[in-house]
User: Fold this.
Amino acid sequence: MNRRPALAGFLALTLGLTSAGCSSESEPELKVVDAFMPQPVSDMAAGFLVVQNSGGAADRLTSVTSPLSDDVTIHETKNQKMREVSSFEVPANGELELERGGNHIMFMKLKQKPKQGEKVSVELHFEKADPIKVDLSVKETAHNPKKQ
Amino acid sequence: MRNNKAAVTAVAFAAAAALALSACGTGDDEAGSSAVADISAAPKAKAATVLDQPFTKPNLVLTDTNGKEYDLREATKGKPTLIYFGYTNCPDVCPLTMSNISLAKRELSKADQEKLQVVFVTTDPERDTPASLGKWLSAQDPSFTGLTGDFPTIQAGARQIGIGIDAPKKEKDGTVVSMHGAQVIAFSPKTDKGYVLYGEDTSAEEYTKDLPKLIKGEAP
Assistant:
């Protein structure tokens, strides 16, 4: 179950080469994969996903909205502290990875508590690219794709 | 790669890319190198770090989730014990750690489950009252012990077992930045010493593998 690094390598090898030299003419081309939410244990939750950018220009994830909560923020975790940030870079020909133990989307004051197997809809807003709607699959609390 | 078509496309892409690159000049291979780092970041062989010089169990007297006084040394004497420092306003690492331990604990025999003590000490006592801490912990495992008290006492206790935590800090915008400890420490039922460390990336499977040994006070 470790398909993503291979895919990332594939993207980097092909797309990295195509546009590295001509990035000024390119635009970000974004795709969201591996989106999930560990089943929350309180009235807050975290969301994780990977934004892949196959375009030659960088973009920034600036905000996230969801019907689950009116208070959704993006956080980085550094030295066991998490801090809200105003945006995350999605590098050109690269990816922004929100992963367990690291950067994440944080949902506060949940309107309901999603259960494993359900979906949580979110909309990601970017500096340049159009917003992207994606469903987070609710997984067990201990779900961590890196560890499977 | 998901299918053959993708593979063919990849080859075509690579060929075209090589041409494009030579035509365009300045190639920045940053994306390529980060992908390499990704692949080489293999999980380490062993989750546990066995300490050459075990820690003495801290002399911590705090308040449990029922509002009662809890003396760590007295309550866990001669019992296999895991201690973790975290806070409940923590959406990711703290519930992940507790949940991993809870999953592993359920794999033990009933007798062993009763022996194992799991103690969660809050690093954010101002917000984590006995009641809110109790509610949060019981959603994960009702058998876990949750402790709160005044921050300097908690910090001093953490420091005695090599865990550095800072007091929660209020930012200008009113949000509170708290921190969780970097490790779970296992104490032996034989010596009452903290002899094994687990990092925050330890999985439920790794705990499941090690818990039977920790219950006996053996090195995993």
Remarks:
- The beta strands of chain A are 30-38, 45-53, 59-65, 71-78, 81-85, 88-90, 94-98, 104-108, 119-126, 132-139.
- The longest strand of chain A covers residues 30-38.
